[in-house]
Amino acid sequence: MPDPLNPGPPQPDNPLHDELLELALEAARRSGAFLRDGRPADLGVAATKTSPIDVVTEMDIASEKLITGFIAEHRPDDGFLGEEGASVAGSSGVRWVIDPVDGTVNYLYGLPSWAVSIAAEKDGETVVGVVAAPMRGETYQAVLGRGAFNNGERVHHRPAPPLSQALVGTGFGYLADRRAAQADVVRALIPQVRDIRRSGSAAIDLCDVACGRLDAYYERGLNPWDLAAGVLIAREAGALTGGRPGEVASHELTVAASPAVFEELQPLLDELGAWHD
């Protein structure tokens, strides 16, 4: 398996990857349009998960069913891992990792920063990532070894400033103790960077690193569906991604940044304890 911090040289075309990308783009387009155009005026919470503010709406559930149903029609032997419960082992070696609404609280409140995130893994390695942000009118995509794109235009990370001039995105968990610990990290970090941004969508933040709209992004507590597509897109745009020093992006910690910013920020976050509650 390639070094997770270095995707290596460009890869040749792969018919399977082409097929997976086409399906991911169409599934994300359909789901994004459904969510954008079908949002009820009286949208309410269908369920809560880890805490009363970790919510699921009826649209999250319907979006996941739309995505998995569409993909299964074309590839019935594939596996699925979805935020709202899709869990199928599959037998093809391909697994789809799906966040049907990344930024559900934003969506619930009518804020525009939400996205549909779809990644495809082959034998455990993410090979395709698509993030559709309908309220931005943007779709980000990447195939392993082929670069990253926004609406068909190649994107690249921002030229790295000194850490003191870096604009850094982050997010906060749903549990009170974790949020308090994350606030302590931000309190220590903010005097050392240009400023902090918090969009409420990990997938969008990772794509903003890819597009040069953020110099860096970090967060503790992300799940596979939160990060799978966005991490690939950021890496294919030339950013570095990882977790704690020497580790891959994970639930413990996810960091993505322009390479020079990454080299400064990752050890600082480790020192500040961004990886624990």
Automatic annotation (TrEMBL):
**A single GO BP annotation from the record?**
inositol metabolic process
List the catalysed reactions.
L-histidinol phosphate + H2O = L-histidinol + phosphate; a myo-inositol phosphate + H2O = myo-inositol + phosphate
What Enzyme Commission number(s) does the record list for this chain?
A: 3.1.3.25
Q: In which pathway does it act?
A: Amino-acid biosynthesis; L-histidine biosynthesis; L-histidine from 5-phospho-alpha-D-ribose 1-diphosphate: step 8/9
Q: Which cofactor does it need?
A: Mg(2+)
Q: Name any one Pfam family assigned in the record.
A: Inositol_P
Residues where Mg(2+) binds: 83, 99, 102, 226
- Which GO molecular-function terms appear in the entry? histidinol-phosphatase activity; inositol monophosphate 1-phosphatase activity; metal ion binding
Keywords from the UniProt entry: Hydrolase, Magnesium, Metal-binding
Report the function annotation for this chain.
Answer: Catalyzes the dephosphorylation of histidinol-phosphate to histidinol, the direct precursor of histidine.
Report the family membership.
Answer: Belongs to the inositol monophosphatase superfamily.
User: What's the protein name?
Assistant: Inositol-1-monophosphatase
Supply the source organism for this entry.
Streptomyces piniterrae
